[in-house]
Design brief:
170 residues, mainly alpha, 0% strand
Amino acid sequence: MTNKAWIKIIVALLAAGYFFYYATTPADWHFIDNVNLIIHEAGHWIFWPFGEFMHVLGGSLTQILVPLMFVVYFYIQGQKYSASLTLFWLGQNFLNVSVYAGDAVKMQLPLLGGDNVVHDWNWLLIYLGQLHNTNEVAGGIKALGIIILLLATVLSIYFSLPKKDNDQKH
């Protein structure tokens, strides 16, 4: 196996290690959350013209859409290794959103703007008549995040390995 393949495998394993560590401590603040918070807040403004529901949902939705756009971009470009690494970011955002969704009843997370701002997931789940299903909603979002992290791990290692055919673009 080539040095390049080993380096890719090491990077994939380091990414997996970091993001699975994140999965065990999703309620803690991590460096990557700074980026995600900016994306989340921008999402509210991006979706503001589409009505109140989309304005409130837009923060969490944008947290998912931005890394997904990178995954799709790299995949379309034939850069499957890069796409698989970016899946880690997508999975992490699902975990992050699950923590916010899970706080919909207790509303204990600190929010930008303090106590005078709307808790997105409290508002969304009340609007949808699903506040009583907060744990199930958060659990489903978290499960998706874990599945994506597992997929990212498998794919990033797989796409690290040298290929025998002409498909060398990873």
